[in-house]
Amino acid sequence: MPVEFPTCPHSGHRARLRARLARDAPGLADYEVLELFLGYGLTRKDTRPLAGKLLQRFKSLRGVLDARPDELLDVPGFGPGLMALWRVLRELLARYAASPVHAREELATPPAVADMARARLAGCPHEECWVALVNGKNGLIAWERLGRGGVDAVAVRPRDVLEAALVRKASGIILAHNHPGGSPEPSEEDAALTEELRQLAPRMGLRFLDHVIVTEDDCYSMVQQKIFR
Known about the structure:
Blueprint: H1 11-24, H2 30-39, H3 48-58, H4 61-66, H5 69-73, H6 80-102, H7 110-121, E1 128-134, E2 140-148, H8 158-167, E3 172-178, H9 188-200, E4 207-214, E5 219-221
Parallel strand pairs: 3-4
Antiparallel strand pairs: 1-2, 1-3, 4-5
Helix pairs in contact: 1-2, 2-3, 6-7
């Protein structure tokens, strides 16, 4: 006699949502899209209540995606399994944001750098410093993390930046880091690092193009604002 396995009581509802997704994805509400996504981590649970809690807490899908890990884990029902799924999605989004410029498209403006940095660092509870290394036409060669710090500082030496550029045989340098506190205003240390790189880069045949500071909804170009020590 064949063994019968119990089916998930929510499988019918989820199947209907997937059918609607295939038929008319834009027609789904935000909570339905989130519910489907959560279902890949919680395959045998009704994810509608959790989707509602997340949207209520973070106000929007973007808010959920940009939330810090500790904030997500604070929501009842959001455990380590979903955190792993969330990290994969965040990584996909960050790499997607960087992929057009990795195709050697021009990376010429602070907002372009800020968009790429924000995709990588959204929701990050600590400061990280990244460098965009470009060729002579400002096409991206590499996008690399130089350092990871605390909530209000990250230690990066001019040598770290210049060595990365020389190893990649880059022509230009654009530095970027985040301010988790919400204000993009540069610190004295930010200004000092920028000035040192402005002085040292030309001596090594490199162009120092900018140092961009990003928050979740703003950016600050130190070169455009002429903020140097």
